[in-house]
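User: Please predict structures.

Assistant: First:
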Amino acid sequence: MLKLILTVVMAFSCLSVNAKDLMKPVEPIEVASDFTLKTPEGVDLSLSDFKGKFVLVNFWANWCSPCIKELPDMQALYEQVDRDKLEIIGIHAGEYNDAAAAFIKKYKISFPIVSDPDTSLKGWKVLALPTTYLVNPKGELIYQAIGPRSWDVKQMKALISQSTGK
């Protein structure tokens, strides 16, 4: 019986640790650098286009296997969020190429994707891929995740819902 109780306590402890590890608060809160980058169709897209919304900004690359593994989960999250409150933008690090296009098509990624061909977004302090930031409606970086995450999980949805007030 004691083993069972300890197992249950440990399981709930792991869940709460995992929820905290999903995204870490950015401290101190910083203003997100605006950007204007092109979509694969050649359309300009800026962070400021989404002013007044929360924006999940994901830096990825088609040669980054952890990035490739997490994007379908991010797509699943995108399909379930209220886009009047939260938008997702994928920023492909480097030149957008045929391999990236094939991946986007294969997994039916429908959230906006832009390319940063000369990795000009150094102000975002991306040290590894994937890296994801949650930007609040005031344009401030409030959470970050370095490394892959499972975006289609209850804890992530709860964190984003709590942050967006949804």
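Second:
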Amino acid sequence: MTIEDTPAEKLLASELAMLLGNITHRLKRYQTDGFRVCFAEFAARCCDDDSRLARRVLLRTGWVPAGDGEWIVGKGAHPLTKVTDWETLDSICETILDTYRPIEDGASRAA
């Protein structure tokens, strides 16, 4: 899938960015040192393998490319999994994605 510049796609990117921002700001003790994430894994797990959507979400929340496929916010000292686990994040992102990009045939995203 690719992102289009429709109002729904802009809202999708905004909602995912708000979620990511809330996750990275909820534990103050880790904010200064910042976080890092593998771009490909983030795109696959949180953005339905849509790299353009993943880039928009990360950029909106202050992340920057750091080389070797990683993106960082702040100093990039901690993995994103320091403040959330992938299973929880997957589940929430899937719910958000299904709201804006419903699957017509009722099949699950994992299929």
